Amino acid sequence: DGGITQSPKYLFRKEGQNVTLSCEQNLNHDAMYWYRQDPGQGLRLIYYSQIVNDFQKGDIAEGYSVSREKKESFPLTVTSAQKNPTAFYLCASSIAGINEQYFGPGTRLTVT
Amino acid sequence: AQSVTQLDSQVPVFEEAPVELRCNYSSSVSVYLFWYVQYPNQGLQLLLKYLSGSTLVKGINGFEAEFNKSQTSFHLRKPSVHISDTAEYFCAVGSSNTGKLIFGQGTTLQVKP
Asked: What is the C-alpha separation between A82 and A67, in angstroms, rounded?
């Protein structure tokens, strides 16, 4: 079964801790994306990667970091510098240059 | 720069009634347009897409949308809704040169019995 997996589904952290969200895809897609979703604000792009070992900042990259060492994996680290990390995080992938994106089930991060 | 505006944040409707969710976009280049659906605490699922060709696009679950270039709109319609259509719906625009999508703020469709 091809698709995108995100783990865990729910994540709780204390303020000041870094946390890494996992995203894996077996669709053989070149491009991967991380979005943040807050109520009433739609989806905002954090980082994206069109190819292995390369990634670009999206609209709200401050306080986040990513890596793309393998085609199928694109982990997102929420650092302690992110002022409001509590949100629903969605990972997506697509064929490079094609806008149709496939989404994972999301990770809900709560920081207290 | 591209942008997307979903004109209604919430749309309440009775079961079996028709519904239209409105989406307007702005772009200086050729666009690709998408509608996604999101059920609570889940990811987004593609409903339909417009890439080129016929301006009337049919998608899953009985939804359809019409691309109107002159009005820069891509409204989503369904002739008869079900309780199970209750969800959040997102309109998105992309362009060929970036591969990125810009999303609207979402419309919550509430289907009442």
From this structure: 17
